[in-house]
Design goal:
CATH architecture of the largest domain: Alpha Horseshoe
Radius of gyration: 62 Å
Largest sheet: 2 strands, antiparallel
Helix content: over 70%
Order of helices and strands: HHEEHHHHHHH
CATH topology of the largest domain: Serine Threonine Protein Phosphatase 5, Tetratricopeptide repeat
CATH class of the largest domain: Mainly Alpha
Strand order of the largest sheet: 1-2
Amino acid sequence: MSTRLNTARCLTRLGLALSLAGLMGSAHAALFGDDEARRAILDLRQRLDQTQSSIKSLGDENAALRRALLDFQTQIDALKSELSQSRGSQERLARDVSDVQLRLKDVQLFQKDAQSELEERLRRFEPLKVSVDGREFMADPAEKRDFEAAMEVFRKGDFVAAQNSLSRFVQRYLQSGYLPSALFWLGNAQYATKSYKESMANFQQMLSVAPVHPRAPEAMLAISNVQIELKDLKGARKTLDDLVKSYPASETAATARDRLARLR
């Protein structure tokens, strides 16, 4: 804007100078003669050349300024493009980070669910404290499940099926804390189906593996019952005598004394 104003001013001055030159030329021609007019014209021409040179210089400066402005605008456009690309990269990076965070959250939830499921599965195999026939011991969940299932069959009075269930339990869990109770109830189921010899064998095995079991006196009384069924009264009396001697303070011992009195 300043360059254009300077150019306009110069042109205005040039016009004034030419007008003055015309007037002065006429005046000098009239007053001083041809020599002075020539000098005035030469002087005016010199000034005109100088003014034209200034105008040309201003034009060159204006062109240079335009080129500089064009270069500056080009740089601005390039910076805008770089800024736009940078913003696009930042937005993509933000989306990628968000996706990673969501995936990480999904992985954490999956790990938590998997850990909970694993802990639940492990709990199914962890030993449990159980109490059966007055005894407390640790048992695997599978042992507990199978023993209770067999006893449920026994309570229903299906002694044949109970024999099968309890026999499988005894064969499968030879080291189980349930074993003495399983042998005791297996012997009772067999006694109920008149499988006397098998019944006696299981009662005797029960006394062998757990002689101080709370149901040991009952097992000895059951053996005497089997012996009576088998007409072995001598054996029955001996079993009852042993019961009284081994477990004198038990309630079963009182029953054994009464039966001994009837068998003598």
